[in-house]
Amino acid sequence: MKHVDNTILYNGKWLSLKQTAYTNKNGKEVKWESIERTNTTKTVVIIPKLIPSNTYIFIKQYRPAINNFVIGFPAGLVENDDLEKEAIRELSEETGYHGKVKKISPTLYSNPALLTDTVNLVSVEIDEKMEENKNPVQCLEEEEEIEVIRVKRNDVVNFLRQEQKIGTAIGIGPWYVFGDTVC
C-alpha cells in the first residue's frame, strides 16, 4: 500500500471527514473515508476500582450519535502528554473521585477502519476511605450528562445485562473487560 493523498471532505468544530487515496497491491488507486478529531486524536479510558470494596465505577452517559445512554468507563481527550495526569483529571471531572494510576496500556486503536483516535487504557485505584472520595462531586461540561454507577466486581455482568435489557447501550470497554467471552 502506498499513500497518495488526503482530502478534507468536511471540517466541523470537533470532527473532520477525510478521504485518503492510496494505491493497493495491484497498483490501483483506492479511496477510503475516515473521521479525525480537529482538536486531538489522543484519548484515555479509565478503569476505576474502589479499594477495599472491590467495586468498579462505570458511567452512564447520553451520546447524541446513537440517541441513547451508554454504560462505559470514564474517558476523555488528552490535552497534553502526561497520560497519568490526564487520566486523573478526567476521572475527577466525570466522577468526582480521586485515585492513583496503577497501570497504563500501550497506545491502542479502538476502530482504525474509521477513526484516527488512539487510546490508552488506564487502571486507577481509588481509596474510598479518603475524605475526598466519601462525597465525590462531578465537574461536568455543559453538554455532558453523566451518572456515576458503582458495581461490585461479582455483579458487573448481571448489571450490564440488566441495563441492556431496559434499553441502555453498552460500550465495548466494560463488556470486553468484564463480560462473558464470545469464544
From TrEMBL:
Q: Which UniProt keywords apply?
A: Hydrolase
One Pfam family name is: NUDIX
**What biological-process terms (Gene Ontology) are attached?**
nucleoside phosphate metabolic process; ribose phosphate metabolic process
Domain of life per record? Bacteria
What Gene Ontology molecular-function terms does this entry list? hydrolase activity
InterPro entries, sorted: NUDIX_hydrolase-like_dom_sf, NUDIX_hydrolase_dom
**GO cellular-component term (any):** cytosol
**Hydrolase: is it a keyword of this entry?**
yes
Q: Where is the Nudix hydrolase domain?
A: 50-156
Q: Which cofactor does it need?
A: Mg(2+)
Query: What's the protein name?
Result: NUDIX hydrolase
For this protein's source organism, the top of the classification is:
Bacteria, Bacillati, Bacillota, Clostridia, Eubacteriales
